[in-house]
Amino acid sequence: MSPAPEDELGCKPLKPLDGGWGWVVVFGAHISIGFAYSTPKALSIFFKEIQKDLQASYSDIAWISSIMLAAMYAGGPVSSMLVNRFGSRPVVMLGGLMCGVSMVTASFGNSIIYLYFCIGIIGGCGLSLNLNASLTIISKYFLAKRPLANGLAMAGSPVFLCFLAPLNQYLLNKFDWRGSFLVLGGLMLNCCVAGALMRPVVPPRNQSYAPQKKVEEQPNDSNKLKGNSMKTRKKVLDLSFFRDRSFIIYLIGNVMFIFGAYAPIVFLSAYAISQGVEEYSAAYLLSIMGFVDMFVRPATGLVANSKWIRPRVQYFFSFAMIFNGMCHLLCPLIKSYAFLVVYTVFFGVGFGMVFALIFECLMDLMGNERFPSAVGLVTIIECFPMLLGPPAAGLLVDVYNDYKYLFFMCGTVIVAGGLFLFVMNIYNYHMLEKENAAKNRKEKSQKLREPEPDEHLSIGDATDL
Q1: Residue 381 CB: number of other CB atoms within 10 A?
Q2: Comparing C-alpha atoms, which of 242, 243, 349 is closest to residue 296?
């Protein structure tokens, strides 16, 4: 890998372009993020067959998606470090290669532990490279249109889920789960193509030779560049974020959401089958969710970009979480397939709103410069609820032999997280206003205490006379 351009090393940030090649980058991010978020969900189509073949429990089988998602989130700091060093393009291409290899090798597995390693760890690490690198390069290409760009890129998850769910059911019926994994491994190599589209941001032509001149004039600039690179690496796990009240509030609410977010998706198809729904119809529930999610994410980006919502985007985020959790609390009351479709539609709306805003809210709080380090820290912390959520839900199914407790648990945790964010954001903004007012009063009092420059001059003149 060659080093990243100057702006990606943090030496001289460039003004975001807000268009042009940036839309091609958004398309590439749409593909890589689509695979990153949809693969752990769409793999649930194979869980029933894998469970029978390898004689595993509900909790055991849920660990596959759980480990994959946890590895995807835990790899955030490493991904951020690689992006800061080499840029987004080679990192996404490497991630795509790892994803393809993981699915191909998993097709030869004969134990659940082997699948944990191949799909969970190798595949999850590959998805982590795809996700963080794609989000970072979008923040470099966009500022004013960033919510829309993020919404379009994050829409890759529902688009891919919409097509992968029925495709996986078709592949399962044709080739069994092992042959299906071989096909999916080939499909995931398209992330390498997506990564090739992520051209680094380059300075304008009239500035392109400035760094070279500086090196000629000042021989020590190469040492400064190395120092900047070392500082960038240190900031990958910048613990100073824990002194930021806004960051702590965001992190707690986000962790609560992540704990309950994925278990309903992992078990949705199995729950529908337990209610007497045919297998293809159960798989299409994921497609319906993906189809709704596909339109909700960019629409949410447009709404979040409006002048009324943009200053209040944190409150919009908390509303989306509460809406999402309420859907899960009502799901166990549903018995017919028609009402399951209605639940899936509302679930897709809530899920799409949250994930269209989840990184936009972090960018809003931390800014473009601090975002790569912040997202790395957030993702590594989120891997713990991501790891524990689906297996805990699967354990409830094993213990009670009923899916309704799964939905009650997830809905309660998510609603609590949304309410926490709403209340604490009101408190946080109130405290920020008080702190800013106190700071302004302090600055005014300091100015009043300082003597006027003219007074010094008049005293000096009188002494001379």
Answers
A1: 17
A2: 349
Q: What is the 3-state secondary structure (H, E, C) of the chain?
A: CCCCCHHHHCCCCCCCCCCCCHHHHHHHHHHHHHHHHHHHHHHHHHHHHHHHHHCCCHHHHHHHHHHHHHHHHHCHHHHHHHHHHHCHHHHHHHHHHHHHHHHHHHCCCCCHHHHHHHHHHHHHHHHHHHHHHHHHHHHHHCCCCHHHHHHHHHCHHHHHHHHHHHHHHHHHHHHHHHHHHHHHHHHHCHHHHHHHCCCCCCCCHHHCCHHHHHHHHCCCHHHHHHHHHHHHHHHHHCHHHHHCHHHHHHHHHHHHHHHHHCHHHHHHHHHHHHCCCCHHHHHHHHHHHHHHHHHHHHHHHHHHCCCCCHHHHHHHHHHHHHHHHHHHHHHHHCCCHHHHHHHHHHHHHHHHHHHHHHHHHHHHHHHHHHHHHHHHHHHHHHHHHHHHHHHHHHHHHHHHCCCHHHHHHHHHHHHHHHHHHHHHHHHHHHHHHHHHHHHHHHHHHHHHHCCCHHHHHHHHHHHHC
Torsion from C-alpha of 123, 103, 390, 373, nearest 10 degrees: 20
Residue-wise pLDDT for 26-57, tens only, equals 899 999 988 988 888 888 888 888 888 888 88
pTM (predicted TM-score): 0.71
Across 294-322, average pLDDT:
85
- Amino acid of residue 269: S
Burial label, 236 (beta-carbon count in 10 A; 0-12, 13-18, 19+): buried
Which residues have a Cβ under 8 Å from the Cβ of 423 and sit 6 or more positions away?
Answer: none
Distances (CA, A) of 114 to 26, 109, 110, 117: 35, 6, 7, 5
Summarised one tens digit per residue, pLDDT across range 46-97 is 888 888 888 888 788 888 888 988 888 787 778 878 888 888 889 999 999 9
Residues 122-164 have pLDDT tens digits of 999 999 898 888 888 887 888 777 777 877 887 787 788 888 8
Backbone dihedral region for residue 96 (phi beyond 0: left; psi -120 to 50: alpha; all else: beta): alpha
CA–chain centroid gap for 351, Å, is: 13
* Four-CA torsion 118, 123, 125, 127, nearest 10 degrees: -170
Q: Which of 77, 112, 73, 125 is nearest to 385 (CA)?
A: 73
Top mean-pLDDT range of 10-14, 174-178, 213-217, 240-244: 174-178
Owner of token pair 């989306």: 320
Angstrom distance (rounded) from CA 421 to CA 214 = 47
Neighbouring CB atoms inside 10 A of 419's CB total 16
